[in-house]
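User: Hi! Is it possible to get a structure for several chains at once, not just one? Here's what I have:
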Amino acid sequence: MVATPKIVIDRLSIQYDDGTESLRDVSIEILANEVTVLFGPAGGGKSTLLRALNRLTDLVPRTHITGRILLDGEDVLADGVDVVRLRRRVGMVFAQPIPLPMSVRQNVIYGLELAGEKRKSRLDEAMEQGLRAAALWDEVKDRLHDPASALSGGQQQRLCLARVLALEPEVILLDEPTSGLDPISTGKVEASLQDLKQAYTVVIVPHSIQQAARIADRAAFFLQGELIEYASGKTIFTAPKDKRTEDYVTGRFG
Amino acid sequence: MTPRNLREVVIESLVRAAGYSAVVFVGLIFFFLLREGLPGFAEVSLPALFGSRWYPTEGHYGLLPLIGGSLVVTLGAAAIAVPFGLATAIFISEIAPRWAREILKPLVEILGGLPSVVLGFLGVLVLAPFMRVLLNLPTGLTAFTGSVLLAGMAIPTLVSVAEDALDAVPRNYRDAAVALGASEWQTIWRVTLPAARSGVLTAVMLGIGRAIGETMTVMMVTGNAARLPTTPNSLFLPIRTMTATIAAEMGEVANGSTHYHVLFVIGIVLFVISFIVNLAAGAVVFRRPKRAERVLS
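Assistant: Yes, the chains can be modeled jointly so their relative placement is included. Here is the combined structure:
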């Protein structure tokens, strides 16, 4: 099977009003049904790139973006794109688990309700599906009506994943989803990512190089807003071409 | 004891004294109210106190018209101030561009510092005649006029506190909601507002608290007719509040007379009402977190 690019990033540059540059002339093709890892030292522009993919960059006033991001051939940065629909197709999980101030159940079905789904059976079904896919169902099935804030940190993060999955997106973006989690919860999240890629396109900013190496099908190394190297995970972590990539993955800096 | 330790002890006891003094003062006020007011209960029977006529010169000490007056004015003020105040707070915190926020917030806070006499003056000279013409009433000095002005006083407090609460909601929450496909308004209504719930309720209570206790403005614009509000259109007739009654009559009453004691009974009633409002606010604000804690443990 020849993998088709799900997302094509074409000469993307992002600049803030105060003159700081976040991304410089980045071009990548992201393949469907793979885990693509964006990694590099802090301030490299990984998170910004991730947030540009579903236009969360819109929330930061005075951001200048040039270039194109094609999702199935359609430019998501173009004027007139239905941002709400885009965000349903491209879901996002953040570094901090952010349970919304409602019950576990409501958290998971919130996105669907926003999309106008009213049938209770459909909502319940999507909720269970989402929670199962995020490996959380068994732990919370008896406490669906408890406030989400009562779950543990690891459970909250998987709840956030379930919330995104319930929307049945096409692409899942994860911004250091395990940075606040203990190793066991981290393992659970990583394991569910491997299942998820069967059905979704996964783009993740990992919270460590070790994690990047564990989960990457493909990896992009960013340094100060520049894409240094983009290759299969195996290549980049065992035989990087660029000296800077090698220095970083072997722990010589960063 | 070294000088350094001595300093610590002195500062600590000063701070402690300041803290306890609040409790002591509330206790003293309550004690004073009781001492001056309790004879009132002995001199006027309870049924008479809850009568519907307030004519102290003829020996009628029915408090119902005054309690009713306060209630009508306060509820009216709340009905106006809460929606307007919340909308303003939401606009300032969530929707307005940064430059507008930096102008609006201080402006609203200045409005809150306006002396109530000035507002009352405005009410008597501008708002009351306007109301009279607009609603075709015999007089513009009505409960509704009082409500509008009190709302004007409550709104700055409400806006300022509610805006702080909304602003304190982590940016993350908005990101998360927006990433799930929520529109700006859906994010505000279903996520930001519930997350700021306790702060917003505090804002509402503080605003209403300001309205209940307000004296000068209502005395100037509500007409001061102690008449029991029984029908809905009482809102557009003159009434008299408890606070205005105390303020207007305390200066002319003979010290130690029945009338004097009953004015203190009104004070006790006010004290009890504001105590209940505070308790209710506390119960509402603290209910949810407690439940979450129980689940955690």
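The CA atoms of residues 7 and 71 of chain A lie 5 Å apart. The first helix of chain A runs from residue 46 to 53.

User: Great, thank you!
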